Amino acid sequence: MQNKQKRVAAIHDISCVGRCSLTVALPIISAAGFDTSVLPTAVLSTHTGGFTDFTYRDLTADIRPISDHWQSLKLEFDALYSGFLGSFEQIDLVASLFDRFRTETNLILVDPVMADHGELYSIYTPEMAKGMTTLCAKADIIVPNLTEAALLLDEPYIGEDYDQNYVEGLLLRLSQLGSPKVVVTGISFDPSKLGAATYDAKSRAFDYVFNDRVADYFHGTGDIFGSTLLAGLLSDFNLQEATQIAVDYTRECILKTVELQQEKRYGVCFERAIPFLIKRLGL
């Protein structure tokens, strides 16, 4: 057992209804045993997938004062974890926060949440997508899906028409943005399997992790994956091991949702699968 409880700063939006972003990151990382601080980037009445007429409050003006107060308290974080940002201005603000709280030993994970299935999310703009490369350059690990990877590299999204050579070239090009470790989600070379591809620039190692695919699309799984990946890394699993745990736990959450016949747009039933996660992390 470690003498010191690790502390994480999770920088995401809050969707009041719909399990994603902070309503996923906070309970998952906390369940893994870590002290989880939050910095909300926006507040929405629901998440943006499957809902219309949602309310949206941009919290850009709050980021600097919160960061200032944290710095005045001399807070230290073992990990900084950013996801959905609420405005173009927030990219520079979060980059500055990374600079303030970076240490020689902490971990910065950026999930460039902005698109899926070839389409930008409704609140995002192409300008924000290009600006996200600035934040990725400051990360120790980035976790884009295939759509976000194409946007970060200013390349066409090729859909499902890819092979292993393409994926490994993509990982290499993403690492050249500045992050030494890259995980690309939503990778499949077999219709029955789904998982992620990883690259570590230091060891020049590529890895793939998969599990059985569950048919259909479920909202919020990217946030579950990113939060679980971070929990695994902070629990001293290596990149491949932590990615496998994240793939397996995400699938377990989907299976619980199917079993309970839950309406998909509200996100997956990750709460029912937390015992699975705790067991996998060895807690």
From TrEMBL:
It comes from the Bacteria. It is an enzyme of class 2 (transferase). Pfam families: Phos_pyr_kin (PF08543). InterPro entries: PM/HMP-P_kinase-1, PyrdxlKinase, Ribokinase-like. One of its GO terms (molecular function) is pyridoxal kinase activity. Residues 75-263 form the Pyridoxamine kinase/Phosphomethylpyrimidine kinase domain. NCBIfam families: PRK07105.1 (NF005491). This is pyridoxal kinase. It comes from Acetobacterium wieringae. Its EC number is 2.7.1.35. CDD domains: pyridoxal_pyridoxamine_kinase (cd01173). Keywords: ATP-binding, Kinase, Nucleotide-binding, Transferase.
